[in-house]
């Protein structure tokens, strides 16, 4: 890697998580939304290994520690994603971590990160980072805003 490549990588807002757990930890319950046959099975396995259990589906009826959402352009408008983010964050115990996975730019059903940022703001959440989480998916990491009391 050249110095120019190193500098560009250091300045990039994207982090390449590769085989990392994306911030999830053993024992956590992670709820998955909008899973379909195009979801990255390797990424799902990495998360399941990190939490030492299977992901729970969107019909899970109890509190969870985090959520992952597979979102594609065909899944709806900004308001649809905002509604889903409100639902997902409402299930979280103590404002856990949410990842929105979108197909990378140029892919079928790709979603612009500004789309996700607008939905995130509408839902009262905050974008923390974006990462190349797999060859075909970009992950956008979200956190709940601190409550004002």
Keywords:
alpha/beta; single chain; 4 helices; disordered N terminus; six-stranded mixed β-sheet; globular; 149 residues
Task: Characterise the protein shown here.
The chain is α/β, with parallel strands linked by helices. It contains four helices and six strands, in the order αββαβαβαββ. The chain has helices spanning 3-11, 41-51, 78-90, 113-122; strands at 14-16, 30-33, 64-70, 92-103, 125-132, 137-144. The protein has a six-stranded mixed β-sheet with strand order 1-5-6-4-3-2, with helices on one face. β3, α3 and β4 (92-103) form a beta-alpha-beta unit. It is globular. Residues 1-19 have low confidence and may be disordered.
Question: Helical segment tally?
Answer: 4
Terminal-residue CA separation: 49 Å
Largest sheet: 6 strands, mixed
As an assembly, this protein is single chain
Would you tell me the structural class of the helices and strands?
alpha/beta
Give me the Rg, rounded. Answer: 15 Å
Portion of residues in beta strands equals 25-35%
Give a count of the beta strands, DSSP E runs of length 2 or more.
Answer: 6
Written as H for each helix and E for each strand, in order along the chain, the element string is HEEHEHEHEE
Adjacency order of strands in the biggest sheet: 1-5-6-4-3-2
Kindly state the percentage of residues in helix.
Answer: 25-40%
Name the poorly predicted regions: 1-19
Please state the average pLDDT score. 85
3D shape: globular
